[in-house]
Input
Amino acid sequence: MKRYIIILAVIALVIIIAVAIIYKQSKTEEVGLQKIRLNEVTRSVFYAPQYVAISQGFFKEQGLELEITTGQGADKVMTAILSGQSDIGLAGPEASIYVYNEGKEDFAQVFAQLTKTDGSFLVSKEENTNFKWTDLKGKTIIPGRRGRCTLYDIRICY
Output
């Protein structure tokens, strides 16, 4: 009788372990994250909320894994979208308009407005509580990328 109880206990234990393993595997598959490939036009403090959300795990909480690539220009972001290298692009709407105006049948759709203004920021190493644009006269401005403005004269930029 003792032997019969031991055999039943072992069989019950094996069944419990098997069910637990199967249950854990099915839960792991349910928890799998959906990967989204995002191509941003440039790394910018403008997208700080997105970077915070990533670092704090907010996307993962929603079942999303965000893979970010920096395109370095709206044209490169649009190329990545159209070639299937990216799912979403953060860039100005002009890239979509250029593709549409070329007569392409497969053009990108602008579906959201992330910002209302240009993503450029003027920063300084020193605090200036009473800033005026005239304070920049004679100063050197370093643009975020080529073509935005020149390094020589602030009047050319603004």
In short: Residues 74 and 95 are 6 Å apart (CA to CA). The chain has six helices and three strands. The domain at 32-117 is CATH 3.40.190.10 (D-Maltodextrin-Binding Protein; domain 2). The mean pLDDT is 77.
